[in-house]
Amino acid sequence: MAFLRHSVCTLLFWSLAVSYLVVASPQCATHNETFVPDAVLRVTESNISQSCYPSKATVLVNGTSPGPELRIKEGITYWIRAYNDMQDKNLTMHWHGLTQAMAPFADGTPQASQWPIPPLYFFDYEIHVPIGMAGTYFYHSHVGFQAVSGTGPLIVEEHGASPYHYDEDKIVFLQDVFVKDESTIEAGLVASPLSWSGESAMVLVNGKGGGSANGTACNASLSTIEVEPGKTYRLRFIGGTALTFASLAFEDHDLEIIEADGHYTQPYNTSYLQIGTGQRFSALLRTRPNPEKSTYYLQVESRERPTLTRGFAVLNYGLKPTIPFLPPNDLPLTLPNTTRGFLDYELHPLSPPKDFPTAEEVTRRITMTVHQRVLGPTIWVQNDYPWTETFPQEPYLVSLYNNNSLEFPSMERALANDGIDPISRAFPAQIGEVLEIVIQNTGADKGGLDVHPFHAHGAHYWDLGSGNRTYDQASNEVKIQEHGHPIQRDTTMLYRYATTTTNGTNMGWRAWRIRVTEPGVWMIHCHILQHMIMGMQTIWVFGNETEVLGKVGVPEVQGYLTYGGSVYGNENRWPSVVHFTDNEGSDAWTDNQ
Ligand code: C2O
Ligand code: CU
């Protein structure tokens, strides 16, 4: 791609030999009229009606929810421009599942990596997916509850050929609809006492859905997945829901899982799928050579909630419908109850992993204990600390650069305090460490237990599995030996093994292993949007001060350090940004450009 690079700043760059990713010399550049972004996302808020619910203020991307399908290739750097066209709301765009280690201000997290984009400004995101991470991802705003609708699919294609053969690929994007609007939900979640969002009123498939919610029928039109007989389709399931832990299946069609969270797996046959918010799976669906009927339902149901929400879509062998399909009168399928530990120990990498960290290599185990408190507002804490949009006052990385309100996290204090530094509220780790991160479910103040899809930014972890009570490395190792290599993931479920227990009882764990290789400030959080707003988020700082802040110095990143700083463009001003990688491509595209 061609654009001019203006020398508006001088860069002092310390080449850190810490990365297997592209480590190029950062360059300053003004994105003036000669700069053409690879894709443009325009975020607005408009009144629209979804499913069978009345119209309300909804965050849209390029006019729709979900937004356009974005396709990029691994190994190439892209620039995606995100416009905040909302009148009175901040915005960020997060590239869910991408590791973004090379472009520290482009992860799209308002509390960690950047100031949010002010109303009527835009920001250019630099995106680079390392070779080997092609797969299924999505993008979403990381501000408040906006991701409920301000989201869309992000597909990373291989540099070469896909290891699996299929005729076509199709997206199955899951979302929730709530009756209340996003601002009302957000305000209620931080209110004292809590005013709950309400349950999901419908699970949408590719933006549409009807079925029932808490026993009440919702007769809205359905999405269709158009297929032909005797073919193989790669269905890319994306858990873009806010709350719903979905169980789904097709009538008379099985699925063969081939990818989880951006990693190819050995093929695994299943008749149904469980998918939590933030998770992605690809599965091959082989259509019937001689279908007995022209339409088969896809049935999707919520799990682990007090009420049941059920939605449908249609696998259509016939002509494109002239009038939309509606939900069935009779239930086509009975979906199984929650399978705890679904696919744990069962999925294995397609090619043998080279760098799975063994138990012997683990240098430190950090147990992150999650707990719900009900004093005053209802909040979620991790090792006794919540993380909300009011703490910290600045994005964490910005604070570290500004060196004003936050001290760099202290390893010493963290080691003395179960891994978290109580002053900076971060979990610090040194480059070279091999962490075992155990997420521990506990009975809430009132005894309740919940399920949580835990998501990590910055790196994919090796998922060691899950179980009841507390983690025991020795017995889990035996299980791993028996089953074979785990896979890398970025979002996996913390289950509950009862709906209530006593306050503080350890009941349910999930364990990850991660090699700390990339310096940066990363979030680990539950992906249920309600829980995030209620404090269920943590910040991890990988690397020491020189490694984290030394990539580019303060004078060069000045434009990133203030709200609405010079890296944010608007009608009257081109942004001046830092290019952290080179190797630009020009073939990202969206389907509605
Ligand atoms: Cu999709 Cu921080 O998350
Ligand atoms: Cu949660």
UniProtKB/TrEMBL annotation:
Keywords: Copper, Metal-binding, Oxidoreductase, Signal
Domain of life: Eukaryota
GO molecular function: copper ion binding; oxidoreductase activity
Signal peptide: 1-24
A Pfam family matched in the record: Cu-oxidase
Plastocyanin-like domain span: 43-158, 169-318, 419-538
NCBIfam families (UniProt xref): ascorbOXfungal (TIGR03390)
Family: Belongs to the multicopper oxidase family.
Protein name as it appears in the record: Multicopper oxidase aurL2
Originating species: Lachnellula suecica
Lineage, broadest ranks: Eukaryota, Fungi, Dikarya, Ascomycota, Pezizomycotina
Gene: aurL2_2
